[in-house]
């Protein structure tokens, strides 16, 4: 059984960096035993250098692609040869080392339990049966979670993202009552008591602390951080929550641990079911994401009118659940649905399955398309966006090609770090132009907190995230677990990266819509006019279903979304300008 596991692992992941790192010590030990050979020292050095080269090269972006099936196992393409004599030698050394290590384990399947008693580990007896039951329970749990996620998705789609508003009604009434009670309590306690509740000026404290951190005044920064942390909380009001996460970022920046903190945040895995629940709730109370999804789906639905094939290239697909609604609409289309092909592009995840998230999205969408009777194929690509080329996507001229990016390009590196070559943003836009899509749906985070100077960036980020946390405070109950999930996994992650990281580690680099407009035009893209019917429908939906402070407007061909007058997100549609050449 152990041999089978080893063979399976080495077959699936022969060049994985973690495997190569694990193999290296065993290879060195075994080569050391051959010291009697006249070429032993030379052989050992060659072994070490070859392994180091392999480890450095396999860090390059990987491209994962399935075959002709709707969803299949991903295949990996590296920039180096996948099998060499040294790789085989290293693998053999590693597994031989494992065999030698077995000599130190108890024989006759005897294990020692926590009480110091010997216990027979009989795979043919009760233990095997117990493990079998455990594995079945795990499998059933995974299936149940997947089914529950599908049901949530069905409900989200059938109600056009409005189904959760009924369940949220009581919570929103509770929030309103809590706010009214708090205001009445302040009035009753008088002006003096009211002043006490407003004594902590987080904006001033955060600015002063950021200035101290920026000038390396550790004493002042530490003192200010203590004051901020004493009064802030991830479960308090909007100001306290923002101060809590911003203080985390400042503390990590001062300690030089920004990268570790950010990677610990992105390493927190949230289940698909929990994500769908959170998005479900978010769209019931906040218009930003819902407007973006409806805008994208209606634009694509109109683009494929009268055509039989549709190909969507989605940068940053993640769970992919937004396409379920489009699949449902296409299934009900007069004349029958078109053939739908989705190419989902996501950055590789760390670990043994870099394409796991995209593949799960593909299986989920394939199952839903089959249920709706829509011919469907899914192509998973786990790679950096700038590593994807138009020729990799097998574009069919008979297809209506649509490129979609909802807020994903904010993390592409800009020209501030790429003086000697074309920056990744322009590389991706050039690739999209070469695809010649019928429409490119571009949704952006309208932020100005990507300046090179830290204090300028910090102030702009404060204004932006203050608006976001105010949205959550106004539309969500404070003790709602899904609100905490959204704030921690989305807002805090972005804020911490912007504050605590520099150089290539700082991936949050949003631009405002005017800057993106100029960049897209330089890349040879031509802006398309907004559909007036879609714009009118979205304005009515926001006005009738959401808080009065949500705003939706149009400027220079962009659909703008904001809160209390501040523009936070923007959407536009583009196509390739055939009269323009490459950048």
UniProtKB/TrEMBL annotation:
Annotated keywords: Transcription, Transcription regulation
KW Transcription (keyword) present: yes
GO-annotated molecular function: DNA-binding transcription factor activity; sequence-specific DNA binding
Pfam families tied to this protein: GRAS
Membrane-crossing segments per the record: none
Location of region: VHIID: 279-344
Family indicated by similarity: Belongs to the GRAS family.
Protein name in UniProt: Uncharacterized protein
UniProt organism field: Brachypodium distachyon (Purple false brome)
Native organism taxonomy: Eukaryota, Viridiplantae, Streptophyta, Embryophyta, Tracheophyta
Gene from which this protein is expressed: LOC100842884
